[in-house]
Amino acid sequence: MAEILKGAPVAAALTDELAARCAALKARGIAPALAIIRVGERADDVAYERGAIKRCEKVGIAVRQYLLPADTKQDELLRAIDGINADEGIHGCLMFRPLPRHLDEREICEALDVSKDVDCMTERSLAGVFTGAGRGFAPCTAQSVMELLRHYGINPARKRAVVVGRSLVIGRPVAMLLLASNATVTVCHSRTNRLEEFTRGADIVVAALGRARALDEDYFEPGQIVIDVGINDAGDGTLVGDVDFDSVEPLVDAITPVPAGVGSVTTSVLCAHVIEAAERR
User: Which of 5, 1, 3, 2 is nearest to 229 (CA)?
Assistant: First the structure.
């Protein structure tokens, strides 16, 4: 039976550490604050927002909500971001995406001050992840993978890691973070020929394909560590990962569940980025 790498213990440990750092900042007269921009009422955005606010409360981070209607105009949203940039009391900004189609998402994201970009919305932050320059922050979900590995004592150094997925939100940033941790990294995707040959040869497999149960036992070997970042509707209202958990769990050494795995760490990482942004300032 595989070790189940649950996210709750990771989130709890991070929260305790961050609460202490937040208290130290407040003792110096710095009150960490996060701005949350939500355009419209998408159910998944509202749910994540609720979780982020609860986690911020546990850490001691103040939250300022910018709740805008779905028909918000480009200049109205840009003005909100300009206000956040100018407000020295706000240390980080989370904006839910995708934005409604009538908005130019790239222009809006690039308007944000990179020092407050705590979820890697800007190209400058992404460039920092790829170059290792230390500017900006990695996407929260990608960083959550690394926090989970660290918590469970899994050192990627000198290990073969295969990332299945090449998005700029998870796949490629995770690959860069693993590379920075001295793993030997291969990036695969939905069009990789004989994908199973790559995944079976890895020590660590990060599944970020975005397809429900796309990777079954044929893609894995005994002794592997499987990090499933996918979260998909199975068609019956239940949530499942990119990995077929039931067939893979008996085979590998360790695996994350879906839900209750990587996803449950992301709000803690968001808080960590806000605290670090406040410490930098």
Answer: 5
CATH number at residue 144: 3.40.50.720
**8-27 pLDDT, tens digit each:** 999 999 999 999 999 999 99
> pLDDT tens for residues 217-241?
999 999 999 999 999 998 888 999 9
Separation of alpha carbons 199 and 51, rounded Å: 33
Residue 10, token pair as written in the block: 């990771």
Is the Cα torsion angle 106, 111, 114, 118 positive or negative in sign?
negative
Give the DSSP H or E segment for 163.
strand 160-164
CATH number of the CATH domain containing 65? 3.40.50.10860
Contact 267, 55 (CB under 8 A): yes
Evaluate whether residue 128 is within a structural domain: no
How far is the C-alpha of 42 from the C-alpha of 11, rounded, in Å? Answer: 25
Amino acid at 50: R
Query: For residue 93, how many C-alpha atoms fall within 13 Å in the half-sphere facing its CB?
Result: 29
Residues with Cβ within 8 Å of 49's Cβ and at least 6 positions away in sequence, in order, are 36, 38, 65, 96
Percent helix, strand and coil across the chain, each rounded to 5? Answer: 45, 15, 40
**Residues linked to residue 233 through DSSP beta bridges, in sequence order:** 239
Phi-psi region of 165 (alpha: psi -120 to 50; beta: other; left: phi over 0): left
pLDDT of residue 237: 84
**Residue-level pLDDT at 74:** 98
Tell me which H or E stretch contains 226: strand 225-228
Strands 239-240 and 232-233: antiparallel
